[in-house]
Design a protein that fits this description.
Length: 325
């Protein structure tokens, strides 16, 4: 190889020689991103997106590693597409790449952070993935198998590959939702780590503002003055139907300051230790459902009550299925 370029230099213009030698050396010695390097760059962004949506950070990272070859694939390098999302209704820039078929259309992003953000929205807004949000954010196995069952990838071993990556690199540790420092100003440098940090600050602004909390393994916020289901849907970049459905409400219902609004589907039963509830004055089935983060229809089923009926003061309601004696 070197002999060829030495000969080329003697027979051609020096400027051309310099350009070609630079190009070859750049490609010969450029280092690909390792799995550990990829995790280090994008782990905080994955945690941020988990807090926004409920998608496990471990799943986000494992999919990114697998779909983008640690950020080294053509789609990742040329289009910042880390999740192999195809055009389907896309109005932004495009790139064409051979996948299941030749020359398929894929989404192209300005930066990798946009790919992470769009991946979250893609799962949240696509009805075939809606059931995934019934799973806990630390239940990566159910998420992996659910993604495969919903047809995210055609590889029959897709779920197991995700699980293997998560367990090999201990990605489940990020499902604990570690909060990073969000008080620093957004850096303008082009370094990938700093760009990821800057995006994480931006995307997680609402976490500081609303102080996302958890009840019965379900994330919620407490409303501020002037909030509505529409404004909160825009704030958290969710579909208009999601928050009303998660809270057994109508999109037109008025919100008052200090109300609990769940950002994820409530559970089928109360947490351990909370077996029954004694009804107090002015309580309704929905208010009790909100208090314990138990789905309202399920609360009716647990108590063999007709939908829409209300309990009497002093009634004892079941919050979990009674154990058989």
């Amino acid at each position: 190889m070197l002999k060829f370029f030495l000969y080329f230099c003697r027979e051609n213009m020096k400027s051309k020689c310099v350009i070609i030698i630079w190009f070859v050396c750049h490609n010969m010695f450029a280092q690909n991103i390792t799995v550990d390097g990829y995790i280090n760059i994008y782990k905080e962004l994955a945690v941020s997106e988990m807090q926004r949506s409920g998608i496990p950070a471990s799943i986000k990272l494992a999919q990114g590693i697998l779909e983008s070859a640690n950020g080294n694939s053509r789609l990742a390098v040329s289009a910042n597409n880390h999740f192999g999302i195809k055009c389907h209704g896309w109005t932004g820039e495009e790139i064409y790449h051979d996948d299941d078929e030749k020359n398929e259309c894929f989404r192209k992003y300005r930066e990798a952070k946009e790919s992470y953000y769009d991946h979250t929205n893609f799962l949240m807004r696509n009805s075939r993935y809606a059931f995934l949000f019934e799973y806990k954010s630390d239940d990566y196995k159910s998420w992996a198998r659910g993604l495969s069952r919903a047809g995210y990838a055609t590889d029959p071993n897709y779920a197991q590959k995700l699980i293997n990556l998560i367990e090999r690199y201990s990605l489940q540790q990020y499902d604990k939702g570690v909060i990073v420092d969000r008080t620093r100003p957004a850096p303008s440098a082009t370094d990938p780590q700093q760009r990821a940090d800057a995006w994480e600050d931006f995307a997680s602004f609402h976490i500081n503002r609303y102080q996302v909390k958890s009840n019965n393994r379900t994330e919620y916020i407490v409303t501020l003055e002037g909030d509505s289901y529409t404004s909160l849907s825009n704030e958290f970049d969710m579909m208009p139907w999601q928050l009303p459905r998660y809270n057994d409400a109508k999109s037109t219902d008025q919100l008052q300051e200090g109300q609990v609004v769940y950002l994820q589907p409530k559970r089928r039963k109360a947490e351990r230790g909370k077996v029954t509830h004694t009804v107090k004055a002015d309580e309704t089935m929905r208010s009790i459902s909100q208090q314990y983060a138990v789905k309202l229809p399920r609360l009716y089923v647990l108590n063999r009550m007709e939908d829409g009926t209300q309990p009497n003061v002093g009634d004892v309601l079941n919050l979990r299925k009674k154990k058989k004696k």
